[in-house]
Amino acid sequence: MRRLPLALAWTVLVVLLVPGRALARPPAVPDLPALHAVYDTVHGGRVVDAQGRQVVLRGVNDNALGEYWQGTSLPTTFPLEPGDPQLMRVLGFNVVRLVLSWSRVEPASGHYDEGYLAYASSIVNRLAAMGIYTVLDMHQDAWGATLAARPGEACSAPALPALGWDGAPGWATLVPDDVPRCFTFTRERNPAVIQAWQAFFNDDQGLQEAFSAMWRHVAEHFARMRAVAGYDILNEPNAFEGQGPDLARMYSRALVAIRAGEQAAGGFSHLVFFEPSVLDSGGPNQGVPPRFTSDPNMVWSPHIYQGAFNNGPITSSGFTSALTTARRLGGLPVVIGEWGTDAVRAQQPYDYFLAHEALQDRFGVGATMWQFRQSCGDPHKAPGVLTDAASVVLKGLFDVDCTDNRVIAPRLKLLADLQRGYVRAAPGRLGGEIWNPAARRLGAVGTARGGGPTLLAFYPLPARVRTSGLTAVRVLSGPSGTSYIEARPRGGPWRLAVSPATATGAGATSPAERQRAVLLRAARDAQATASRSRAPARRR
């Protein structure tokens, strides 16, 4: 999607909606039509819904269903609490990338945990009730939880004893006992991890066949669910130098299995997301598999963490690379599967999150931030918890005390950065959009045929709307003082400008103060509904 000169457009906008006169029906919950891909090697691919609208997927990752190595006495994840989907809705999210673990789907070879999949379905339904799609992400980091250093294992400097991580079950981890469980600089450079991945790419003992069969079973389970946007085949696969063809072959087998599962269950073809190697997270143009399919519903989903791990800036290079690669792969749409950094960098002078989001708008890509809520027992934080728990700072939307894993308070600056106006679904093609976080102003342009499907935009405050090329414009009351804007295209170019409605009367506050109050209330409501429940235990 090319960014158009929005600054020139607003002099011709002609429709003005005054708050209070155009509000309709109680707080709206957007419908979730099935999604598919439209390829375009010139202008860039798009995700499109069954009504023919371009859908911009914006949201967050949640790892409540992930199974991680237990390196401390603290839980490795938080559950998705009862109030969490509502908070996500208030933030304007329309997608959650939900972590699944192969080790939980298939704890023993050929035996699938139906209770686990049923629990995942219940989360999909809870999110759908808030107008939020789910991408099912088969997550892994450094292969699995069983490759931690053994008690007392010595490693030759500069190598250190390895932690365990998440992903593959123990029965699928084909690593001889004499291979060291040590890592040098990065968790992926662990001889045991490298050996496990090589066995997988070699299809030793039918590992890839088993992985594909597992995906077929998962796809059968979710085949008819419109609220499932799609499936992410495998998170950050460890394909290194020269292993691009191996990665492509694995993806191809899994894709065939997914489509067979959907067909067997009488479902429909969901989007399938696929990623470059884990190498690509640190820099563009690395670990890209060769083109492996002509399937019409693929999405290129790299992770853009540039500057996240070294306190550097985020620049356009990762986005340019992602779009270039997507065009080379056949004009695929792009959704950034992961992005983010430590929450302190939401503060000035960093403003990393705002800068990243501005680039998402500029290049017209969807994105899901890592992550909604992080637990102190997460392997990423285990070393710090074991040495100085009080000083550990987690990712996510909440401050947590790692001496006891107690949620302290919401991170309001980060919440405010993430809650932004955008066009969720655009008739025709979305030409460009801009969010001004200081003024809380949204601008968007596009083109559509007359009488086409309804535009839907999210706005974080009561809204004042101006349009051109749109008709039947309505401002709908959203949750906690947010707004949805609906409009129909007249035919040809259209423009949308949304700004905060002017507050009147005693005690009127600024848009920034109103937004802060809304977010604080929504976050506290989410915490107030927190339960002690956890995902069902693995069946033995």
How would you describe this protein?
The chain has eleven helices and 25 strands. By secondary structure, it is of the alpha/beta class. The strands form six sheets. The protein has an eight-stranded parallel β-sheet. Strands 2-23-24-21-18-5 form a six-stranded mixed β-sheet, with no helix packed on it. The protein has a five-stranded antiparallel β-sheet with strand order 1-22-25-20-19. The chain is globular. The model is unreliable at 1-26 and 531-537 (pLDDT under 50).
Which features does this protein show?
globular; eight-stranded parallel sheet; alpha/beta; disordered N terminus; single chain; 540 residues; six-stranded mixed sheet; 25 strands
Helices and strands in order, then pairings?
Layout: E1 15-17, E2 23-24, E3 35-38, E4 46-49, E5 53-55, E6 58-62, H1 84-90, E7 95-101, H2 102-105, H3 114-128, E8 133-139, E9 160-161, E10 182-183, H4 191-201, H5 207-222, E11 228-232, H6 244-264, E12 271-274, E13 298-300, H7 317-328, E14 335-336, H8 352-363, E15 366-369, H9 382-388, E16 398-401, E17 406-410, H10 412-418, E18 422-427, E19 429-436, E20 441-448, E21 455-459, E22 463-468, E23 470-477, E24 483-489, E25 492-500, H11 511-528
